[in-house]
Amino acid sequence: MLTVLLAVVLISWTSRTADRSALENESNLILSGLQLQGDLLAKEQESAAVWDAAYFSTRGRSFDPTWLHVNIGQRLFDSYGHDHTLIIGENRSPIYYSHGAIMTVGFEDEAFLAQIRPLVARTRARFIIQFARDEYGRDIFMPTRDGRAQAIYETGYAAIDGKPALVSVTAISPKLHGVAGERHAPAVLVSVKVLSGERLEDFSIMTGIEGLNMHIGGLPHANETALEIDAPTGQAIGHITWTPQYPGADILESVTPVLTFLSFAIAILTTAVLIYTRQSTKRLAESEARAKFASLHDGLTGLANRDLLTKRFEELLSDESGANGFLGVVYIDLDHFKDINDTLGHAAGDEVICEAARRLRVIVPSSALLARISGDEFALLVPECESRDDLDDLLKRIQDRFASPMYTSNTHLYVSLSIGAAVAPDDGASMGELLRKADIALYSAKANGRGRHTFFTTAMEEQVRARENLARELRRAIDHDQLSLVYQPQTTINGRKVLAVEALVRWNHPTRGQISPASFIPLAEETGLINDLGLWVLRRACRDAARWPHLKLAVNISPIQFRHPQFIERLASILSATGFNPHRLEIEVTENVFSHEDPLVLQMLQRVQQKGIRVALDDFGTGYSSLSYLRQFPFDTLKIDRGFIAGLETSPHASAILGTIINLGEALGMSVVAEGIETEHQASFLRLTNCDRLQGYYLSRPVPADEIGDVEIRLARQEYIEIDARKHA
Asked: Are 211 and 204 contacting, i.e. CB atoms less than 8 angstroms apart?
């Protein structure tokens, strides 16, 4: 019985809702149709209102009513059947009026003017804001277009001669835009179409709503459906009445014979719906559980993600029950993971990540939380540690587990781990502090050779702070020109004539004293300052070397600086700004510039050579790929690593190797520079070879720019002394 009652109530409510919806739709249809008629009325005005002749004919104080009647009033009546045409001048007073095709002197319907006054005001305001100020301070009429009409207009309803009507107020504006003028209120064209019975009948046919009528004065009868028509001032000017359709009542009447049958059907359907709903609810709960799991876990490995790590971290730190033990916070990073991605591809990298996650999951305690933080970085929370030694044993077992190779992409890979750890409460009591200190420990493990685990110490933090402070001071030194350059000469094979100088940067800190380039250049490379530092060195070296037009200039270029996408442009800009001859410049690169196997590097080297700049391969012989680089790219100069020079006095094979390298450079058409010459024995041996240039402390230490001339004089005088000694001998 309850089901039958609910069915009857539901159908009755549905029918009434349908009737209300139909009535609302009919009302909206009438309003939309009237709005469309208003827009069409404005569109009909457009040819007369957006017209240069009309614009200038309605400005000023003298008007030609006959011209306005023939070209506007008569035209709108003949073409579109406008019942009333009114033009209100710039002074807000009517200057022209016609009723039908008859022009009338003056317009006395003050009530109508009062009703349309808001439309006139809005139209004028919209016209005025279309003026823009050009670069000469003139006001230019530049209207924005909405894509539908050129005219600026407002539409609404008003009563004229006691009859409701559609009204369109359009600004009389120039068609030629962009002409300078003063910002002013325009004359407006007012067109009126009375909502007569004939027009309502046509409107009824257009909308499909039957029995449309206009009710004027008072309220319509209670049994009539009516829509109030208001003037822009809010004053009611009439009601549109019509015969509504009641589809809900019709439906209710048609379904009454089958209502009894539906009552029984509803009971059956309700049962089916309940069953379906229960199943859907179960599926939804499962879906929500999966979504919640996915939001807190890594999609590749199934481990916890950063969000779950943070949540669990906060729970552990606030858990008083764990106050008697330590909370270990561990960062784990796969060593050289980027090389795996670069050489074997990202698919192989994903396999390595999954295998690493599997090994870690097996070995970590069940009470610990293992999370994947980023690409190759994991985090581990270990609660209730008895001591640091227990955590240290766990980290050792983890690293021992990774001693065995991984098999992926048909390749055996040995992947080591760098691990940094911090413990609460010794190292901190907040999540941010502990994670930061674990990260500092991880950085220390990487800096000390990777493949190891390190616990956070205060010294590490002090070292990080010192490194950050030094980086800031280096930034300041570059910006404030607090660095300096020294130049080490490269001489002829007899060591008596300077052929070139190599620029070397020095930093004399105001409080720290001299800071070794071995300290601040790697720091610059790590922090990204190497680009600015390298540009500073290039600019200063080119400026200094301008005073030695007979010498070449060698400048070391960091691999990071060389791979910068704008390196060539910046190099060319410095040469242009300093006026330095590119044929005198030689940039020195090490084979590390090829470490990423980027084909663009070879293109960059070729572009450098095309500008007339020489390219030297520095520290030749120290890398396993040096010979392959000579095959890939024709360097201009080979700089033999100082280790081969030092070996002349300790290794019996050093002289043979050194001679082979020099002969190789000569065979390839390259200049050969031997650096690190520190003894007479080394210099004497090289004088017997085809080496082109010598460089080292034996010949000259690096000196400031002002002392290069003194070095040249000293070496030349030494040559004169030797020649004189040979003559006397």
From this structure: yes
Q: Which DSSP state fits 703?
A: B
Q: Contact 596/554 with Cβ under 8 angstroms?
A: no
Beta carbons within 10 angstroms of residue 386's beta carbon? 10
Among the listed ranges 3-12, 126-135, 319-328, 657-666, which one has the minimum average pLDDT value?
A: 319-328
Q: Which residue has the tokens 């481990």?
A: 303
Q: What's the chain's Rg over C-alpha atoms?
A: 46
For residue 244, which of 213, 209, 214 has the smallest C-alpha distance? 209
Q: Which residues make beta-bridge pairs with 693?
A: 673
In 3-state terms, what secondary structure has residue 419? strand
| Cα–Cα distance for residue pair 464/526, rounded to 1 Å | 13
Q: Going by C-beta distance under 8 Å and a sequence separation of 6 or more, which residues neighbour residue 100?
A: 77, 83, 84
First-to-last C-alpha distance (Å) of the chain: 138
Q: How confident is the model at residue 322 (pLDDT cuts 50, 70, 90)?
A: very low
Within 10 Å of residue 706's Cβ, how many Cβ atoms? 9
d(CA 665, CA 684): 20
- Written as six digits, the tokens of 338 are 């980027």
Which residues are within 8 A (CB) of 440 and not within 5 positions of it... i.e. 6 or more apart?
420, 456, 460, 461, 464
Task: Output the CA angle 149-154-157, nearest 5 degrees.
Answer: 130
CA 31 – CA 692 distance, rounded (Å)? 96
Q: Chain centroid to CA 248: how far? A: 55
Helices (H), 228-258: 247-255
CA dist 218 and 237 (Å) reads 9
Q: Helix or strand or coil: residue 135?
A: coil
Burial pattern 355-367, b for ≥16 Cβ within 10 A else e, equals bbbebbeeebeee
Rounded Cα gap, residues 715 and 179, in angstroms: 80
Token pair 């807000």 in the structure block, residue? 92
Yes or no: say if 489 and 695 are a contact pair by the CB < 8 Å rule.
yes
* 584 or 30, greater pLDDT: 584
For residues 595 and 562, is the Cβ–Cβ distance under 8 A?
no
Q: Which residue from 359, 360, 354, 355 is spatially nearest to 331, judged by alpha carbons?
A: 360
Q: For tokens 């600015």, what's the residue?
A: 532
Token pair in block for residue 652: 């019996």
Q: Which helix (H) or strand (E) holds 99?
A: strand 94-99
For helices 2-49 and 197-207, the axis angle rounded to 10 degrees is 120
Q: What single letter denotes the amino acid at residue 571?
A: L
Q: Which amino acid is at 62?
A: S
Among candidates 76, 82, 84, which has minimal Cα distance to 47?
76
pLDDT > 90 fraction of the chain, expressed in percent and rounded: 28
For the record, the structure tokens of 518 come out as 């071995």
What would the two tokens of residue 125 be? 């305001």
Q: What is the largest CA-CA distance in the chain?
A: 142
Q: Which two tokens stand for residue 114?
A: 């009062």
| C-alpha torsion angle, residues 449, 453, 459, 461 (rounded to 10) | 90
| pTM higher than 0.85 | no
> Residue 522 belongs to what H/E stretch?
helix 517-527
HEC string for 252-278: HHHHHHHHHHHHHHHHHHHHHHHHHHH
- Provide the token pair at 317: 């730190």
Average pLDDT over residues 30-46: 89
- β-pairing, 377-385 vs 406-408, is unpaired
Residues recorded for the chain: 729
